[in-house]
Amino acid sequence: MATITGSTDEKVFKISRWLGLNESPDGDTKLKLGEASVMRNWRVTRDGNLQKRPGALRMAELGTTPVRGMWSGVVNGTKVLVAACDSRLWKLWDGDWLDPPVSIGSISTAAQVNFFGYDGKLYILDGTEYRVWDGTTLSAVTGYIPTVVTACPPAGGGITYEQVNKLSAYRKVRFSPDGTSTVFQLPEKNLAGIDSVTNLSTGSAMTGWSGNTTNGTVTFSPAPAEGNSTVEVRYHVSSSFRSQVTGMRYAETFNGANDNRLFLYGDGSNQAFYSGLDEDGKSRADYFPDLNVLDVGEANTPITAMVRQYSTLAVFKTNAAYFVQYGTLALEDGSVTASFYTTPLNRDIGNAAPGQVRLVLNSPVTLHGNDAYEWRSTTVQDERNVKRISDRVAASLASFTLSDCICWDDNDAQEYYICHHGAALVWNYAVDAWYYYDGMDVQCMCSHGGSLYYGTENGLVMEMNESHVLNDDAAISAVWRSGSMSFDRDFMRKSSAVLWVGVKPEGRSSVTVTILTDRKPDYTEKILSGSLASFQHANFAHWSFLTNYRPQMHRLKIKAKKFVYYTLIFENDSLDETATITAADIRVRYIGYAK
Question: Which helix (H) or strand (E) holds 123?
Fold first, then answer.
């Protein structure tokens, strides 16, 4: 008796890990299982699940103009969150949210505002003035007054001591009286004023003196007693280089092995100014000696970013990269001063977005051309140190004007953002996945208390975290679309009648599942609910009696016949629901050769 046996060439293809967006320039037929050809407002979790992106909640309304900057840190021993908007500096949080926000004082918000903390204070650069907030008072940084000459005899001369401060028109000179001379010559003439004379032996102000600003002299009656650097004269000149400092927009700390010097840059030139130490050896944010100037590369391209990496300072221009190392230099008088040496690193790749280089796992990430680059090391001259990381999102990034981008590293979530005019490309470097968000009007970003905050063009401060489903009361439309999957045999036709989708149960959760093939553009849509039983924000359209928190696999019957390429689609545009997809399994039967 003959026995006829049938064989079925059937496989189940499993997506157990989601790999993010891949905008392949050669089409979507070569994508891996788990990669998306379209991925809008979905993210990849650290466990490799696919999740609808977090929403954003309005936390503060600061005005009607763009929020130009935000900063979180400690000022005078108190953790604060501040923002710049509507020509004001605002305090938003100092242990709790302030409603309404507290105005600290006036600043310029015509352009981007940048902050940095130093010595327990907050310093602000807005391109017009250099300000400081000590937790109580917001004021312009007046500048340290240097002692330019010490041990100066009455006739002039002495020992050159400290350089003049670019920030200040004031100087000090310490004289060593001989007991008989009454006229003391200052090192400059045509002064704007002689302000004070102090007896350093007693610490008290001296009397019986008169000043001549034209000749730069101080006349005493009677002559001061003999001493060594016992008379200090403070005076000021009519002009200073303050505008050179206040024109800078960005700051970085660096000094080789430690970070006790400030480097200011961003005035559109190739120069940076670095701070000095006072006579007690203390680092200061208000002292920029006249000769402490770093010229990087040719003068016709500006410095766009500085970032510290290990014991070097990486410096980026629009078309090149350099690194700066700390050293010392012996002067003719035998003294030793700090010196910074600049070395070219890359003559082709730089950074286009001013002040937007971020350290991602201690590697600078820059924007150049139409790409994002990761600099593995800025200490060795080797072209392999820089790696292009944005190939998978090249099409979207090419549509961005890189010089207008806002970049941020959310270290808590290990996500790096490139934001541009309502859109954001996000690199999850924990799992090496890219994704695309829209509906994000980002003018500045800041991490604070485990959440990500951003300021908008119309003066709003938004909090973005997983507890928010809406985007400022608007629904988030999330779409995930796989590549055109041939299931290992692009030369054969297939059929598929069933697939399984794993959904994580959450308070309010659903996802719409459908497919398309090369044979048919639309198929049945299946709605999966992953909601847990709860009357809080209940949605009876997707009501569930589920109380099990473990992921649930859902079997879906969506029939597709005689196709070569198969595309899986997930969607969610609900006002009050999120979605987390753990896996997808597709049963495929091979039925013949493609014609």
Answer: strand 121-125
